[in-house]
Amino acid sequence: MRPYAGRTVLLGVTGGIASYKSAWLARLLTKAGAKVETVLTRSATEFVSALTFEALTGQPARVGLFDAGAALEHIRLAKAADVVVVAPATADFMARAATGQADDLLSAILLATKAPVLLVPAMNDHMWAHPQTRANVAHLRKIGYQVLDPAEGMLAAGEGEGPGRMPEPETIFAHIGRRLESRGTLTGKTVVVTAGPTREAIDPVRFVSNHSSGKMGVALAAAAWRRGAKVTLVSGAMSVPAPTGPLVHAAETTDEMARVVGKLIKSADVLIMAAAPADFRPETVAKTKIKKGKKAPTISMTNTPDILRSTASKRKKGSVIVGFALETNDALTHGAAKLVDKSLDMIVVNDATEPGAGFGGDTNRVTLLHRGGKPEALPLLSKDDVADAILDRVEKLL
Q: Are 378 and 238 within one domain?
């Protein structure tokens, strides 16, 4: 899985109760194809064992700076790492890191590595709020380390809720991906992605919509953020959670989505319209629930705004605009017409009737149409891989 496959992640684990989550993080990274080298502090072994990480990663987990045969392990591991992540990072460990101490294997690696460093704090909320911890975090950020803010939620037993909880492994996993990949053309660019269906009310309890899940748009937003972009996801009624990183704007109706996109398009370097907004809406919305009778009601429909076409006069000079065309017949013909009609740089075409493509699934088979270029048919891929393929072409257009 891009960008983890073939990369070396050094996972540092320090002595906090949240270290049980680090085992799942190690598993996620290993499943994605990364080589995970785990280093535990002595205090971490009071909560989890080195054997646990060895079983999950297939690599020996290390603990002691002065263990037999480990004289230069801190140098070797520091050089081998593509990224160093410490999760959890306790208040004690961050204090020692902030003052440049190197009295154990993990802190020595921090001083020896040139790889990006990601620290993931986890501690009691009062410890996180203490002025000394805040000063340590500020200094660590100043010298180039990325320090995530802790999540809010249940802390250790009897401590209630508050800021100090270690973010979930999936969130940390996404941040590691951004550290591995955010050095390309999209770094610092403003990207707007739309995802999911819109809903057009019939009455207070019913609406017109479609089967879009939002998976393709979420995959695109996640991949663009991972590449270093400033990403805004404009989401309809998605059936999947929003990804880590992007700012999210909810839009229930096509009109709402059009208004949000209209505001964002002026500063967008890239717009990817992966949403499936409703093409029609009822002319009038009943104020009360329409009752079932002997004869079904007749509902008059009218067109909704064409969001992509409406952005044409507002687009930033040099921006890249990508549309989607989900068709059920003559897909390439209809897609080519939309490419011209809506002044797009690229359109992603797929056939909803083809197995493995269309709404709701985890895979897609698409054809990319470019201005003046030949159709580029991609094989059946995961939606994550389709997202990366699309963004590879977008980067070439910027």
A: yes
